[in-house]
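@channel sequence for tomorrow's demo:
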Amino acid sequence: MNRTGETNTFPRALELPGAGLVVLGRRRSGPRAKDLLVQDLLCRLEALDPGPWTPDLRLCASALGRPRLVSEGPDGSDGPAVSFSHNQGLTWAALSRSPGLGLDAASASEFGPGYPLKRVFGPAELDAARALWPEALAPAALWALKEAAVKALGCGFNLFGPLDIEAVPRPGPARTRETAFWLRVARPLDLRLAAAALCLGRTAVAVAAPGL
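structure tokens (generated this afternoon):
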């Protein structure tokens, strides 16, 4: 049970190469789900990766609707990066000291028979994902990774399409619960992001941030 008296959060710490530590949690969706998640994850992040933030952070939105944690002090400085996603009655949240952060959750049911996989996924990344996860979950994991990328960049799919982002598993020891990726954004930005995907039941969750 967590400090708010509920058992439905999911605290987890992920290390993104070149981007640092990300803390991830979930809670049943409700009027205060985001605020309560942020409170829990701020405590978790501060314990694992102490930062210079003041304790008076509040959740707000930028002019473009992107979530922000901002100090209520006179300087109005930014706190950790924050991102949210909603899926199957759950609200997911992620916090990081990285200046950009994206989070997405997707369900296998969103990619049933007839879904145009070739319009959003390249054959090589589909093959790689199917080698890591059950076939029904592979598209959900790839989509969550790509959505997390555009959230981290703060542009949505406005500058490029899903096929312009390639999800490449990072070499390393096999992991049972999470897999590290590089996300290559081919055009027009020509950059890459660090990412990780986690599959739980029929849901895939991914986080992404600018990497070295």
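heads up for whoever presents: Confidence is low (pLDDT under 50) at residues 1-9.
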